[in-house]
Amino acid sequence: MRVYIPLIASLFLAAQPAHSAPIRCTDDGEGGACIWGKVEGYDGSSLQIRGLTIQLAGITVPPRRDLCQDKNAKTSFDCAKPARKRMGELLAKGVACDILDVAGGVIWGRCAVFDGDLGAALVASGVAKAAKDSPYDAEQAAALAAKKGLWAAGTVIPKDWENIRKKGE
After folding, report:
1. Which residues touch 68 (CB under 8 Å, ≥6 apart)?
2. Is 110 helix (H, G, I), strand (E, B) or coil?
3. What is the DSSP code string of 23-77?
4. 58-81, pLDDT tens digit by residue?
5. In total, how many domains does the chain have?
6. Closest to 59 in 3D by CA, of 5, 134, 1
7. Whole-prediction pTM
8. Domain range for residue 160?
């Protein structure tokens, strides 16, 4: 069973001051489900808040088992590590997540942080890629053009990511 709850993520930051006030959900008047607060745990594409694990809609991060290589340093690293690091930086001041869907035991959401849309920020940093039918195609194109994150010229990335990089050139 699929449940759709209206998107209110664009409203999260509208009333938020630029200082350190906690980020919170706003009432969209439509009864959309939203959860906000301090993050209890996270990985590159999901976060746990108030006991719920929310998978970020619209992004894909390489699994931990995938290894990337830095040609310049001649070292290998966990491809998901840059996403986890950037996620931690972005979540430091709190998060508000609009629940978009619940399917197959997975809660899908779009989250906002003080820097804006969390998924967009991860894709723009080059540490996540836009999923199929994602709203983040422009951020991915910009990250590819700028060779940010895993799209850097000296980085050997998983095959599916490499195919995207080749199409972007």
Report:
1. 62, 76, 77, 78, 79, 150, 155, 156, 157, 158
2. strand
3. P-----SS---EEEE---EE-SSEEEETTEEEEETTEE---TT-EEEETTTTEEE
4. 999 998 888 999 888 888 899 999
5. 1
6. 134
7. 0.81
8. 3-168
